DUF1351 domain-containing protein
Amino acid sequence: LDEMDGLVLSEFDALEEYKANKQAIQEQAQEYDLPADSYIRHLEDGKSLVDILKMMKTDRDAEIARKEQKEIQEKAKAERLEEIAQSAKKNANANIKAYDAETGEILE
């Protein structure tokens, strides 16, 4: 009977620990703005909470790096487009020597 009580208590403790770990994962996922489901599956598959939290931090850091890289690329693209527009405007102005203000006719 004592053995049965011990088994029941150990199962109860394991279930409580699982619930606490699941809650910790959900809170960390919310803080990191990550979906919690895949990390909870890792917990169900037997990974330790420490390993899962490390994985979440790595994923968050990778996501931040991707966002920063995307912003850099978008900024560079905008700068290139601005340079192209300025160059085209400069070339257009250089090619047009004079024009008739009334008709818009280009006079060469």
The beta strands are 98-99, 106-107. The first strand starts at residue 98 and ends at 99. Residues 21 and 50 are 10 Å apart (CA to CA).
